[in-house]
Amino acid sequence: MELADEIVINAPRDRVYAALNDPEILKQCIPGCEELIMHSPTELEAKVVLKVGPVKARFTGKVTLDTTNAPGGFSLTGEGSGGPAGFARGGADVTLVEAEPGVTTLSYTAKAEIGGKLAQLGSRLIQGTAKKLSASFFEKFAATFENEAAA
């Protein structure tokens, strides 16, 4: 499964990059996130509860960041297990471009592979859920900066 999207955020690129590396902000924005622990600047561990169609599961996973291109972007890889519900693994490339002063365009491409009961649900349901979850994350993430500006 592949996903790609782009969102405009009303904040400078450096602030967007810093927020994408702030575990407290990420925890608030990741749908179903119960816990997010940053073990090092490039290693995170998460516990997330998700419902995909009739399957609800608690996933535990690890994410590794490659910040070589910071603050213009980064890559991440990760994998998670949802017990009997299955597993997911994949990666993403994120690019941050300051389109104009104080406005950043965030674009990403992601690939994921799933297995177990989740894989039996059908690619259309999985793809739709993945798009909905990513849209939810980025809406909450962008709102973080809007709320900050309003305060």
**How many domains would you count in the coordinates?**
1
Compute the number of helices: 3
Q: What is the typical, i.e. mean, pLDDT?
A: 90
Question: Which fold does the CATH topology refer to?
Answer: Alpha-D-Glucose-1,6-Bisphosphate, Chain A, domain 4
Which ranges are low-confidence, i.e. pLDDT below 50, for 5 or more consecutive residues?
none
The CATH class assignment is Alpha Beta
Beta-strand content estimate: over 45%
Q: Spell out the CATH superfamily.
A: START domain
Number of strands: 7
What distance separates the N and C termini?
39 Å
CATH architecture label name: 2-Layer Sandwich
Summarize the main sheet: 7 strands, antiparallel
Q: What's the oligomerization state? A: single chain
Q: State the strand order across the main sheet.
A: 1-7-6-5-4-3-2
Succession of helices and strands: EHHEEEEEEH
Structural class: alpha+beta
Helix percent band: 25-40%
**Shape verdict:** globular
Radius of gyration: 15 Å
Q: How does this structure look, described?
A:
The chain has helices at 13-20, 23-29, 123-150; strands spanning 2-9, 33-40, 43-52, 55-66, 73-81, 87-100, 103-115. With 151 residues, it is an alpha+beta fold. The chain has a single domain, classed as 2-Layer Sandwich (Alpha-D-Glucose-1,6-Bisphosphate, Chain A, domain 4), CATH 3.30.530. The protein has a seven-stranded antiparallel β-sheet with strand order 1-7-6-5-4-3-2, with helices on one face. Helix 2 (23-29) packs across helix 3. The longest helix has 28 residues, at 123-150.
